[in-house]
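Lab channel / #folding
Pinned by the channel admin:
"Please post every new chain as: sequence first, then the C-alpha cells as a reply. Keep commentary short and put observations after the output so the thread stays searchable."

First post following the new format, from NK:
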Amino acid sequence: MSAFGFAVEATSGKARAGRLETAHGSVSTPVFMPVGTQATVKAMTPEMVASTGAPIVLANTYHLMLRPGAERIAGLGGLHRFMRWPGPILTDSGGYQVMSLAKLRALDADGVTFASHLDGSRHRLTPERATEVQHLLDATITMQLDECAPWPIEEQAARASMELSLRWAERSRRAFEVRPGYGQFGIVQGSIFEDQRRASAEALRKTGFEGYAIGGLAVGEPRDVMLRVVEATCAHLPADQPRYLMGVGKPEDLVGAVLRGIDMFDCVLPTRSGRNGQAFTARGPVNLRNARHRDDPRPLDEESACPAARDYSRAYLHHLAKCDEILAAILLTWNNLFFYQELMRRLRAAIIGADAEGTAAAFLDRYASGDLPER
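Reply from TO:
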C-alpha cells in the first residue's frame, strides 16, 4: 500500500500542478471532486463519473451515519465496495449538515446533539465520533469536525467559532488512526477576517495534518471577498501539502482559486444544475428549458468530447428537460461533470506550460461571451 503524499510538480505564478498519492490511487491536481453525498453522484453510475476523468469523489458523514449507517457500510466491506468506486473518496465530516439540516441541534464545547432530518431521532456528533464514522466508511481522506460559521457574522462570534473548530481539530487528530495511504485534513476557519484565518492556519499546522482545507467560504459573501480570503489564507498554508477549498463553486470561482494556489474543490453545482435543466458550456451556462432550443438541431457543445454534449441535439435535450425525463438529468449532469473535469485538465496543462494567467483569461473571456445564437 502506497504512502499518503503530495508533490508539487509545476507552478505558474501562485497556481500549482501537483500529484496526490493515496491508498486508492493517485490524483492529479488541480482537481474537482464530484459530490456523492449519499454514496452516489446523483443521476450517474460510477462508470459514467469515471468517464469524465474524475479521479476522486466526495461522500458525506452526516447522511451516511444516519442512513444506512456507518457500521452497516463497514460490515459490507466499506464505502469503496459499497458504491463500486475503487478510487479515492474524501468524506465531509458532517458538521455543515448538522448546522444546516438537523433539527433541535444543541452545540456545546464537546460536540453537537441533533435530531435527524429524516425521522427526528436523536444523535450525538463529537470530533471523535465523526472521525470514527469516517474510519468505518474507509474514507481515503478524513475531514476534522468543524463548525461552519454563517455569513454575515460579527468578528467576535467568528473568532469564538474558529477557536472551537481548532479545539475540535486537535481532538479529531488524536482520534485519527494513521495508516499508509490515508490522510486527514484540518479545516481553516475565521470567516472573512484575515487575522483569524492566519491564526487558524498556524494552529492547524502545529497540530499537523496531511492536508488543509479552507472552510466557511461561498456562504454568501461577495466573490471578490472570497478570493481575497483564499489568497491570504494560502500564504499561511504549507507549500508541500494539498490545499482544499470546500464547497466551491462556479467555473469562474474555480479558475480564480487555482490562480491563488488551491489544489482541490468540491461543489454540488454541476450535478444540481444538471437536474434542473442547466448545462455548462465553453460559452457559459445554457438553460435547456428555454423555448429557443426546441427546434435547434445543433449539439449542446460541438467542441466537447462528452457524448452528452456532442451526440444529442439541443431540441432533444430541451424536450427531455421540459418533460422532466430522467434522461435529461443524466445527460446534463454527465455534460456538466465532464466540463468541470476538462476545465481542471486545461488549467493543469497551463500551469505545467507556465501560462496559467493567459489560459485563465482566455477561458473567462470566452465563458462570459454567452451562448451562440441559432444559425
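NK: The radius of gyration is 20 Å.
TO: also worth noting, The first helix runs from residue 46 to 51.
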